[in-house]
Amino acid sequence: MSKKKGNFADQYLDKIILGLAGLLAVYLLWAFVLSNPYGQKVSNQKVSPSQIDVQNKLQAQQIENKLQDRDMAKANPYVQDKAAEFLNWLGCAMPKLSITANWPLPGGGQAEKKRIYVLPQIPAMDIVKVASIRGTVRMPTEDVTPEIPYSTVASKAADLDLVTISAHLNLQALYNNFRQSFMGPRLKPQWRDPTYAEPVPARIEMQRRVQNADGSWGPWQTVPFTRIDPYQKMFKDIPLTTEQMTYGNVAMFMNSCRDFAVMKDILQPSPYDFLSMQKWLPPEYYEEYQKISDEEEAKKLREERERRLREKESAKGGNRAGAANRPQPQQQTQPRRGVRAGENPMMGEGMMSPTGMMPPTPVRPVKAARTVQDVERDAAAAALADKSKLGTLKDIIVWIHDDTTVAGATYQYRIRYGVFNPIAGKDWVAPESKAYENHVVLWSAYAEILNPVTGLPESVSIPKMLQMFPMDVLADGTGASVEIYKYHMGQWHTETFEVHFGQMIGKPMESKPQAAIDGMEAGMMMNPGMNPRGMDLGGVQQSTLVDYSTEYMLMDVQMLSDWSSVGVRQRTVPWMLCIDNANQILTLAAKKQYWSKEMTAEYAGVKSEMLKTSGIPSEGMMMPGMEGGMQPGMTTRPYNVGGGF
């Protein structure tokens, strides 16, 4: 046996080739046969092509079984309400954020360091005056908002008693107090903040109390915002303390009131639009306006009366004897003292001196009388202009309205104003101001309306709109004749009712403007061309339905005896007994001659008001229940009449 000789490759090459071929055969067997190369994953599991359909059918069966299950087959209700969610976001776009969260300011993420401030004093208002105006206004029938202002809102005509209070606000003292507290020289430089040193008005608050039947006064109550205030909802949502906050902080509410339109609405809110002839002015100017208007009206009446007298004399051929006894208007026919004819009226008469005639001395010119146009001009100048800056003003006139008064009631008022506390809830308050740490609004002291003569609180009486006066007992003794006066659409209307026992007093009736009242001739009322406040005396007027209904029912008329003060004589007086809805008894003298002095004056007052609102001259004219003509002051002063509402 021969032994092979040669190198290693020659000796084992065939064996190496057979080994590699075997490994390749094993790989091919695994890759293309044993490892299922054409399989797919189903439910995270690889299966052969023949098993794909089987697995799909199995999964479909499982899903079908779940859908057929009793618990799974029950549909879940749809609970998502997008409409309610939208309304919620519309009502408050700001989410409910916690006021205790430490929100970093833009540009910095560090918490503010503690500071110490003494809160400023809020000076009280002064020169407080009040005025009450009655008339027909444009009353809104929908909510007034900044988007729908009072000038464009839907409205209707309605009678209203509007009480307005005006006062002087010392802006210079207010700004000085804020600058001293937040920009004062004693503060650390890093504590001085000009944004805190500018006061932002929060509101003017009016409070009132009503007089009770026994003469006592009820508790003070806050008067709500007027119905024409476009920002009333925003003002109601302003919290007065940090405990009342549900979102935001004091800076957010301050920024909402920094807008000039909001500040003007707080300090000088707009009044109602009067459809009748009433003129609204701030009480600071209203009294002077009324006084000048009455004087001008009285002057026109005197001139008209003198003109009629002259025409009457000319028609009779001129009765000189009667004209001599009749008072004539004083006319200036001679030059005034100290002024010669042809000389300058601004220079006084020359005086003699040892050297001759001295030059005439200057005479101070006479100050012209104020007119209603002057008053209106001053009132317009007192209103804030669109570009007014409060920090540059020394003081301003502010006012506030009350449109919730009740006819026949008597009130007392007081007002105060408040500004925002810029550091409310920050724990930056000095110990002496610790009591106001959480107060969002810092208030001034209350300012009351005082009588200039007595110094006591002034009362505001709202006239009644429905008044009744018993005139006489019916001839058959089964009732009484009653005159009822009703204020309706800016004018007074009257009707006489014959009321029997068991009947309600008054009822709705059609009323027309009268061309003559209490026997006065139409020719004595006005000269041609003087239309009494829009009332056409000669034309045909459309009738108006006026409700003269009262809450009283006539029960009986009793004859009672009393002793008069004159001669101490006994007299029999008929008394009318009435009952109201609350079963309260009202007794009134059933004949005019037995009225008390107070009731007689009240009757004259309502007659005067009726003439005034109708635009008919009343000066010097006789009215029922008045001897000697109209008393001074009755042409302009409203009265509360007994038996009225």
Please provide a written account of the structure.
The protein has 645 residues and is α+β, with helices and mostly antiparallel strands. The protein folds into 3 domains: 61 residues, no CATH class; 250 residues, no CATH class; 155 residues, no CATH class. Helices cover 25% and strands 21% of the residues. It contains 12 helices and 21 strands. The strands form 7 sheets. Strands 5, 6, 10, 11, 12 and 13 form a 6-stranded antiparallel sheet that branches. The protein has a 3-stranded antiparallel sheet with strand order 3-4-9, covered by helices on one side. Strands 14-15-16 form a 3-stranded antiparallel sheet, covered by helices on one side. Strand 14 and strand 15 form a beta hairpin. Helix 9 packs antiparallel against helix 11. The C terminus is likely disordered.
Characterize the overall form.
elongated
- Ranges where pLDDT stays below 50 over 5 or more residues in a row are 98-105, 514-541, 618-643
Largest sheet: 6 strands, antiparallel
Q: What structural class should be given to the helix and strand makeup?
A: alpha+beta
Number of strands: 21
Mean pLDDT: 78
Strand content: 15-25%
What is the share of helical residues? Answer: 25-40%
Question: Rg, please?
Answer: 45 Å
Structural domain count: 3
